[in-house]
């Protein structure tokens, strides 16, 4: 298992698409912070309050570092959608290149192969998703006053926890899709369409069709809008989604014919 984890990390760390994504996210973050385009962020930023019935309205300017970090994450939908697609593509490519076949042929059990990929991809892509808001907030330090460092760092830490749990659950769909489709372009396309549909459903239908409120992407927005209180229930929803999708992906992989 340890060797498999090392091999997965090595493959990802030498993946040009992954590094290109990291660099692109970092560039967007830095440019956002340096230009403060249209004053959408920083001291003059307005952010949304969202509840289970959808968007409720604006709630004033993001005057603190924590609020600015929240606003950056609130506006990171395009990055979430893209990372789901990229992860599905890289995972699907593992089937096309027969990497998983070789690992199983080498004597590793399917469970160990699956867990090594799940752990590595879940952790690495969660960290990649945080590149944009973290680089942007570093650039914003020159504009946003830090009056209470301890409280601001606490708020940023809470946002990162929500991101890891809920966006991690959202990204698990690409794992399931890639283990069903088992191709690079097919997995990427289906994951992209699925992510876009869920995002549109959150925007336009969450107030009408209540079950949509329990999608990870919807819970992510709700969590960001209510940071004054920590919500264990939201964390639990993310954990349930992650466990469910991970189990479904494992069943698909266990039954797949590895030719």
3D structure, described in words:
With 259 residues, this protein is mainly α. It has one domain (2-255). 73% of the residues lie in helices and 5% in strands. The chain is built from 11 helices and 2 strands, in the order H-H-E-E-H-H-H-H-H-H-H-H-H. It has helices at 2-13, 16-35, 65-74, 77-96, 99-105, 110-129, 131-140, 149-181, 184-205, 216-225, 232-255; strands at residues 46-51, 54-61. It has a two-stranded antiparallel sheet with strand order 1-2. The chain is globular.
| Adjacency order of strands in the biggest sheet | 1-2
Number of helices: 11
Report strand %: 5-15%
Net shape: globular
> Regions with pLDDT < 50 over 5+ consecutive residues?
37-59
The computed structural class is mainly alpha
The tally of domains stands at: 1
Question: What is the typical, i.e. mean, pLDDT?
Answer: 81
Alpha carbon gap, first and last residue: 23 Å
> Total strand count, please?
2
Helix content: over 70%
CA gyration radius, whole angstroms: 19 Å
Largest sheet properties: 2 strands, antiparallel
